[in-house]
C-alpha cells in the first residue's frame, strides 16, 4: 500500500471499498442543490470502471461542468489519489452559487481539493483554458422540459434541459471540444430521450470516437455514460464532412442498436 | 481561489476584447499547503501568463517571484518552490476580480469567484 493510499484512507476515516469514491454521509446538501442520484452514481461507476485507464492516462487537469453537490469531482479526486496519482489539478464549475459552496464543503469533508468557479458552463475560462483539460466529466441537465425552465436559478437548472433535454448539452459539447486537450477524455451522462446516438455522430464529425461505459435503466429513465476521445487519425475539422467514408470499423465503436430501448 | 485559477480566468462580458488579466482586490487571503509536484509545475508552466501571475502574487503580498521566467529556470529547485507557492498555495478567500476594460467587479466569496453575468452583459 502506498503512502498516498494511507493518507487518502486516513482523510476519509473509513475502510474497505467505500474509500474508492465520495461517501454519501459526507456529501454536503442544501434544498437548492441537486443531491447525488442514479445519474451521479452511474457517472462515478463509469469513472471507477475506467480507473485503471485513468491512472495510466496520468491526467494533469481534470474538470467537471455542473458539479452540483460535488459528489462526482470529489470521487474522481479520491479515486486518483488512492491510486497514487498526485499532482493532479481539479476544477469544477456550477451555475448555482449554493452548489458551488456545497461542492467546496463536500471536497473539504473528504480531504481533497478542487478549484470551484461559479459560472455558466465554463464562461470566463473558455479563452485561457483552451486545450488544457485532460479529463472532463459532465452530468448535464438532460431532462426534457419546456424551454423557459432552462438555465433558471436554483435547483431546476440542474435538470431542465429544454427540447429533448438537449438545450444545455449541445452548448456544453461545443465548450468541451474547445477545452479538451489533444489527448483528452470526456465522460457525459445522457438519457435515451437526448438521442445519444446523434450526439455521438455529431462528435464523430468533429473527430471524436465514442463508447458506452455504463448503461443503466431504472423505472423512470434509461441512462448512458458515454466516453469521447479524439480519434488518432482525426480529420482536420474543415474536412469532417467527408469523414463518413471511413472504412475503419473501429473508428466508430458504437453500434446503432446500442441505444435501442426495449420494454 | 488559487492564482492558477486567476491565471485561467478572463472577463466574459459581451464585447470586452481585453479581459485578461483580471485585477485582484484582496480582502482576505490564506496560504494553504499543497503537496509539491515538480512535474505538474513543468507541465503547466508553458500555459501560464507570467506577468499576470507575478502581479497577482504581489497583490497577495508575495514578492518572491522573478520579473521574468523562462523554461530553463524549471531545473532550478528554488525557482520551482517559489512558482509552486505563488501558483497553488496562495488563496484569495474574499475579495474581487476586476475586469481591466470595464471595471466590473466579479466577487470572490469563500474562495469561489462568481463569473455570472447580468442579462445585459451576456
From TrEMBL, chain A:
<dbReference type="InterPro" id="IPR007848">
    <property type="entry name" value="Small_mtfrase_dom"/>
</dbReference>
<dbReference type="InterPro" id="IPR029063">
    <property type="entry name" value="SAM-dependent_MTases_sf"/>
</dbReference>
<dbReference type="GO" id="GO:0035657">
    <property type="term" value="C:eRF1 methyltransferase complex"/>
</dbReference>
<dbReference type="InterPro" id="IPR002052">
    <property type="entry name" value="DNA_methylase_N6_adenine_CS"/>
</dbReference>
<dbReference type="GO" id="GO:0060586">
    <property type="term" value="P:multicellular organismal-level iron ion homeostasis"/>
</dbReference>
<dbReference type="InterPro" id="IPR052190">
    <property type="entry name" value="Euk-Arch_PrmC-MTase"/>
</dbReference>
<keyword id="KW-0808">Transferase</keyword>
<dbReference type="GO" id="GO:0008757">
    <property type="term" value="F:S-adenosylmethionine-dependent methyltransferase activity"/>
</dbReference>
<dbReference type="GO" id="GO:0006415">
    <property type="term" value="P:translational termination"/>
</dbReference>
<comment type="similarity">
    <text>Belongs to the eukaryotic/archaeal PrmC-related family.</text>
</comment>
<dbReference type="GO" id="GO:0005634">
    <property type="term" value="C:nucleus"/>
</dbReference>
<dbReference type="GO" id="GO:0005829">
    <property type="term" value="C:cytosol"/>
</dbReference>
<dbReference type="GO" id="GO:0003676">
    <property type="term" value="F:nucleic acid binding"/>
</dbReference>
<dbReference type="GO" id="GO:0008276">
    <property type="term" value="F:protein methyltransferase activity"/>
</dbReference>
<keyword id="KW-0489">Methyltransferase</keyword>
<feature type="domain" description="Methyltransferase small">
    <location>
        <begin position="61"/>
        <end position="143"/>
    </location>
</feature>
<keyword id="KW-0949">S-adenosyl-L-methionine</keyword>
<keyword id="KW-0539">Nucleus</keyword>
<dbReference type="Pfam" id="PF05175">
    <property type="entry name" value="MTS"/>
</dbReference>
<dbReference type="GO" id="GO:0032259">
    <property type="term" value="P:methylation"/>
</dbReference>
<protein>
    <recommendedName>
        <fullName>Methyltransferase small domain-containing protein</fullName>
    </recommendedName>
</protein>
UniProtKB/TrEMBL annotation, chain B:
<dbReference type="GO" id="GO:0005634">
    <property type="term" value="C:nucleus"/>
</dbReference>
<dbReference type="GO" id="GO:0000470">
    <property type="term" value="P:maturation of LSU-rRNA"/>
</dbReference>
<dbReference type="GO" id="GO:0005737">
    <property type="term" value="C:cytoplasm"/>
</dbReference>
<protein>
    <recommendedName>
        <fullName>Trm112p-like protein</fullName>
    </recommendedName>
</protein>
<comment type="subunit">
    <text>Interacts with TRM9.</text>
</comment>
<comment type="similarity">
    <text>Belongs to the TRM112 family.</text>
</comment>
<dbReference type="InterPro" id="IPR005651">
    <property type="entry name" value="Trm112-like"/>
</dbReference>
<dbReference type="GO" id="GO:0141106">
    <property type="term" value="F:tRNA methyltransferase activator activity"/>
</dbReference>
<dbReference type="GO" id="GO:2000234">
    <property type="term" value="P:positive regulation of rRNA processing"/>
</dbReference>
<dbReference type="GO" id="GO:0046982">
    <property type="term" value="F:protein heterodimerization activity"/>
</dbReference>
<dbReference type="InterPro" id="IPR039127">
    <property type="entry name" value="Trm112"/>
</dbReference>
<dbReference type="GO" id="GO:0030490">
    <property type="term" value="P:maturation of SSU-rRNA"/>
</dbReference>
<dbReference type="GO" id="GO:0043528">
    <property type="term" value="C:tRNA (m2G10) methyltransferase complex"/>
</dbReference>
<dbReference type="Pfam" id="PF03966">
    <property type="entry name" value="Trm112p"/>
</dbReference>
Amino acid at each position: 500500500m502506498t503512502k498516498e493510499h494511507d493518507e487518502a484512507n486516513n482523510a476519509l476515516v473509513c475502510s474497505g471499498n467505500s474509500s474508492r469514491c465520495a461517501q454519501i454521509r459526507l456529501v454536503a446538501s442544501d434544498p437548492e442543490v441537486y443531491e447525488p442520484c442514479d445519474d451521479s452514481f452511474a457517472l462515478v461507476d463509469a469513472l471507477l470502471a475506467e480507473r485503471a485507464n485513468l491512472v495510466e492516462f496520468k491526467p494533469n487537469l481534470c474538470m467537471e461542468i455542473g458539479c452540483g453537490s460535488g459528489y462526482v469531482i470529489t470521487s474522481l479526486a479520491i479515486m486518483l489519489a488512492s491510486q497514487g496519482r498526485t499532482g493532479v489539478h481539479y476544477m469544477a464549475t456550477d451555475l448555482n452559487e449554493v452548489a458551488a459552496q456545497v461542492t467546496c464543503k463536500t471536497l473539504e469533508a473528504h480531504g481533497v481539493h478542487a478549484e470551484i468557479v461559479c459560472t455558466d458552463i465554463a464562461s470566463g475560462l473558455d479563452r485561457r483554458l483552451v486545450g488544457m483539460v485532460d479529463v472532463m466529466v459532465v452530468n448535464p441537465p438532460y431532462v426534457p422540459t419546456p424551454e423557459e425552465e432552462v438555465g433558471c436559478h436554483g435547483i431546476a437548472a440542474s435538470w431542465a434541459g429544454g427540447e429533448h433535454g438537449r438545450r444545455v448539452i449541445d452548448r456544453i459539447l461545443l465548450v468541451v471540444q474547445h477545452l479538451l486537450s489533444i489527448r483528452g477524455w470526456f465522460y457525459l451522462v445522457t438519457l435515451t430521450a437526448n438521442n445519444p446516438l446523434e450526439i455521438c455522430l455529431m462528435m464523430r464529425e468533429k473527430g471524436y470516437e465514442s463508447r458506452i461505459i455504463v448503461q443503466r435503466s431504472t423505472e423512470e429513465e434509461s441512462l448512458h455514460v458515454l466516453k469521447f476521445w479524439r480519434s488518432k487519425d482525426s480529420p482536420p475539422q474543415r474536412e469532417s464532412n467527408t469523414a463518413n467514408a471511413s472504412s475503419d470499423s473501429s473508428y466508430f465503436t458504437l453500434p446503432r442498436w446500442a441505444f435501442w430501448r426495449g420494454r | 481561489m488559487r492564482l492558477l485559477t486567476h491565471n485561467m480566468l478572463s472577463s466574459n462580458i459581451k464585447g470586452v476584447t481585453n479581459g485578461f488579466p483580471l485585477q485582484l482586490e484582496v480582502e482576505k487571503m490564506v496560504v494553504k499547503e499543497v503537496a509539491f509536484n515538480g512535474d505538474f509545475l513543468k507541465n503547466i508552466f508553458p500555459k501560464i501568463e507570467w506577468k499576470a501571475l507575478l502581479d497577482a502574487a504581489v497583490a497577495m503580498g508575495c514578492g518572491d517571484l522573478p520579473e521574468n521566467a523562462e523554461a530553463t529556470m524549471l531545473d532550478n529547485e528554488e525557482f520551482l518552490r517559489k512558482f509552486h507557492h505563488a501558483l497553488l498555495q496562495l488563496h484569495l478567500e474574499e475579495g474581487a476580480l476586476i475586469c481591466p476594460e470595464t471595471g466590473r467587479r466579479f466577487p470572490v466569496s469563500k474562495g469561489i469567484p462568481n463569473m455570472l453575468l447580468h442579462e445585459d452583459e451576456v
